[in-house]
């Protein structure tokens, strides 16, 4: 009966070896699954906070001939805060600027990144269409007399936020209401609203 006993022992060892491999595979899968779940939970539990934007100054850099009027080239200095626990990387985009209900110009936002829980200063080159402003000459002259000019701006910023090993896409929509002195270009008042959406999938 010895051959039979050895055969049973061989089968038992083989079975134990297969079980050991299965256990090791199960642990690996479990660890990967746990890491994925942890990353997703981190995003859900730490609900993304909306970043904040604040226009510090508006500076006239040059006037460009666009006969029969002049286009104004400006630099918008903007303070941006990322209150979230993850860094963000965003693509280039364009901020639309409106005056009296019409699109007056735009400001360029270059691609970049921002560390978690940090602040940074952005210098955005902008150009205002003199011909479009001329269509609102009466309103503009009245604003010059009052020393208050209301500008509206809107922008959509898209990019990725890195959590553990995964990049999650996000989108930020910003609406700005800015009151400036059309003579000195001082920022008198402003209201900025932003909304951030993170795509888990």
Automatic annotation (TrEMBL):
Coiled coil: none annotated. Transmembrane segments: none annotated. The keyword Acetylation does not apply. InterPro entries: LEA_2, NDR1-like, WHy-dom. It is found in: Membrane. Its main location: membrane. Keywords: Membrane, Transmembrane, Transmembrane helix. This is Water stress and hypersensitive response domain-containing protein. It comes from Davidia involucrata (Dove tree). The lineage of its organism: Eukaryota, Viridiplantae, Streptophyta, Embryophyta, Tracheophyta.
């Amino acid at each position: 009966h010895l051959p039979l006993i050895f055969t049973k022992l061989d089968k038992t060892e083989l079975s134990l070896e297969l079980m050991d491999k299965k256990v090791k595979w199960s642990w690996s899968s479990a660890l990967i699954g746990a890491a994925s779940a942890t990353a997703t939970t981190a995003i859900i539990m730490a609900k993304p906070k909306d970043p904040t934007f604040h226009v510090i100054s508006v500076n006239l850099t040059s006037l460009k001939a666009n006969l029969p009027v002049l286009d104004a080239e400006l630099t918008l200095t903007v303070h941006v805060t990322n209150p979230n626990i993850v860094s963000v990387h965003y693509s280039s985009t364009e901020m639309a600027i409106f005056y009296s209900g019409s699109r007056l110009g735009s400001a360029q936002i270059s691609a970049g990144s921002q560390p978690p829980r940090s602040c940074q200063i952005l210098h955005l080159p902008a150009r205002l269409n003199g011909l479009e402003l001329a269509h609102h000459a009466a309103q503009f002259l009245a604003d010059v007399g009052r020393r208050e000019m209301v500008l509206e701006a809107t922008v959509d910023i898209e990019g990725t936020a890195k959590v553990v090993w995964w990049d999650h896409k996000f989108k930020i929509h910003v609406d700005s209401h800015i009151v400036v002195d059309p003579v000195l270009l001082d920022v008198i008042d402003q209201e900025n609203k932003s909304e951030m959406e993170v795509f888990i999938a």
